[in-house]
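Table S2 (text version). Query chain:
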Amino acid sequence: MDIHTLYAFIGFMLAAYAVIANDSVQTLGTFIASNIRVFKWYWLWLAASVVLAFTLVYGWHINDGDISYGRLAKIPPVQIEWYHAAAPAVLVLLTRIGIPVSTTFLVLSVFASTFVLEKMLVKSVVGYGLAAIVAYVLWMVLAHFINEKFNTVKQGTRVYWRVAQWLSTGFLWFSWLSHDMANIAVFLPRELPFEYLIGAITILVFWLAVIFYTQGGKIQKIVLEKTGSRYMRSATIIDLIYAMILWYFKELNSIPMSTTWVFVGLLTGRELAIATVHRADYKMGYVFPLIGKDFLKMMVGLIISVALVITIHYLVNPTE
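Corresponding structure-token output:
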């Protein structure tokens, strides 16, 4: 094993953990929060693992060995250096602290040109804004019929909502993996041999087990702070809308984007809508610090990503 292969292996292992640990809250956070008291963690892990394995095998099959679903088309393969592996190491550190930074910016920024990074940023900003607007309009309507501060689902209909939630989460998990797998696949050959595919699935399923066993880790707090996120009806609606927005951007073009920004935008629009409708018992003074804190954490991740790009492209390796 030469030094560059070792860097690629280290980068892959770190990225695999960080992507699952940091970003899985977007897709699996509400699923964990609303099911952990009903099902053992390993049943939830098994369901998520089946979807993960299917997504990777399906993408590998239809894209000639490329599990990134074409998200790396604008980022040509490069020889992995130590600074490429350093990016997910920073992400692991931020994950342990509990900061929901954009994995796409932090990992892919050290591989992408400044031109591609600019396009990634524009697409992510649009995603944040669109998700916030869609969520605000939708929950302005829903909040008149559903009070998500309480679990008001009748006992007789809970089984239907449970099934709907599992299906919506499966769709969301597939859509999200189609986007963010590029953040891991960038360390792998673009035409992945079958044995590498099996190895990647095994490692990701292992890290997924860690996340379910720890009930989402520190990042899970981002979901638990939001109104009604523990309730399966609310979780179902959040997952379905988020999945549809991701699917739209997936079909729009192959430029990678920050799914974290889309997720935070969705929760922002939702919280503002609920606060607008229920002014009497849900004060704006509570909402703005909450969404402001999430936005500030996103900005921290963006600043770190830009700093990494500037350092690598202009100081460490000016020829990149």
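Notes on Table S2: The chain has one domain: 3-310. Residues 3-310 form one domain.
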